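Crash report, auto-generated. Payload:
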Amino acid sequence: MKSRGWALVAGLLVAAIVFPLYWAVIASFTPESRLFASPTLVPRALVLDHYRALFGGRDFWTPIRNSLIVAGATTVVSVLLGAVCAYALARLRFRGKALALAFVLAVSMFPQISIVSPLYLLLRELHLLNTYTGLVLPYLTFAMPLAIWLLVGFFRQLPPELEEAGLMDGAGRLRTLWEIILPLSGPGLATTAILTFLYSWNEFLFALSFTLGPERYTVPVAITLFRGQYQVPWGQILAAAVVATAPVAAIVLVAQRRIIAGLTSGAVKG
Amino acid sequence: MASITLNQVSKVYPNGQVAVRDLTLEIAAGELLVLLGPSGSGKSTVLRLIAGLETLTAGHILIDGHDVTHVSPQRRDLAMVFQSYALYPHKSVRENMAFGLRVRHVDPARVDARVRATAATLGIEPLLDRKPAQLSGGQRQRVALGRAIVREPKAFLLDEPLSNLDPILRVGTRAELALLHRRLAATMVYVTHDQEEAMTLGTRVAVMRDGIVEQVAPALEVFRQPANVFVAGFVGSPAMNLWPCTCNRVGDGLRVVSPAFSSELKGIGVAGSDGRDIRVGVRPHDIDLVPKGEADGVGRVEIVEPLGPMTLIHLRVDGLQHEFVRVVVAGDTGIEVGDQASFRVRRDRLHLFDGKTGRLLIQSHV
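Recovered output after restart:
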């Protein structure tokens, strides 16, 4: 009786999480005329109208490309630089290490809205508005702390003897990091890369503020600007949402095992 | 091969814990020095200081006369075998062994030749393409040794390399290590808490306690002439009997009175030992079971531990409250718990220690 009750609760929870997704996907295939007609759980007709409009009429490829470039570059830079920083913070002995870590965390805690204006002025001075660099650099302000904190935790739980063996073998710190630590940090690096990519892919405020035209809009910005003066094209917005979610969902599904290993590793000594 | 000198080396951790205290040690080229001590005695720290993996608080370390105190570990050209082996899990055995040579930009053909030759001497040639996870404990241990040997370093540092092996394998590998040391004529510093390993392997043994070297001497000398109570009690198995006693000068000799036995020792004298607080030490195999008439004392057998060729018995003796008199007898004596046993201490095998400082005052043999 008890277990049946729990199953019911679990089922309701899953339904609550999955239903909006399901609804968005179904709606994105429903003709505009029927969207506001009496809704049914099982659709009567599926059409590709919204997707055609998305890629034919609106050129949704451009924001997808922009998002891929910006999120990809942010991920690569923050994982590479973050790994070096995190290794130093995890293993080297130097003064003010705890302070440095706290500082890194503090940087990521600024409310974004409070730094948008100064960043805007700064980027304008540097002529970086409406460029990819002008987005990647601000993105690093939240991506780097995330990467550093995740990787510090991960590096700390690798056995220190491995690095000591590397040092005794005559390899310097960087060589040890490159040849011994990083190859063993697959799960940690994957987790970090995926989380960084997710944040960058979904980021909205910076992207809205620092891009000036459709040629540089990222996916979230482009979707927001679908809404016209007199109408909101719900079908297309939902189709765009599905398109924007699909690659991320695919990556996460593929890398799921590694993410879970990465997130929980260090919790229990293995 | 290089000599290693530690000159008044100290290591204090930031939390104030003193790991090594003012330690001076000379390790000759080609010598196998064993650092022996209980856990927490600072022996591993000494090894890590020599390796450069720990920075020392005071003192100097010299390799072949060159001061390397501030030289980073990768430039000291020493090889270390870790207790956990620390093989690179993502590299094959071949790559594990070749790594140190590749880092030093040795020509690839020579790297390959040296890896093969080393693998052949250790009998791990068939394993070269395996990953560490596919190896047994003994095989991993060999690979760790191979990784050290292939580099032909100035000296080898071994941190309890046999402690993760099962007993049979341990004894076998111990013998191989001794052979290897002889063949390579290499300087080795070997850390262990196993006195049997220390005795069988070491050219010399340094017994450590609380960051201090209590005695450095050839293995047998540490056993026969322990410098103090700690070394006497730590080295040798079964452990030495140590009893409190009083000493009084009688003519040209010494009268030793302890709860377990009393005796007059002729012809030896200890300056100022009169009536002093003394500890007397006798190894269990230096006590014999004898007929009652010749005995020093009688005890009740409380514990019988057959060790195969011999048997260790623990005797309860009046006057010795918290300790047993431990005696080693032949394996076939047929002695049983509850028996009364009369024993006699060999007069020429006594060690007398100062009760306060623990230092050796005199021993009745030599």
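Post-recovery validation: The two ends of chain A are 37 Å apart (CA to CA).
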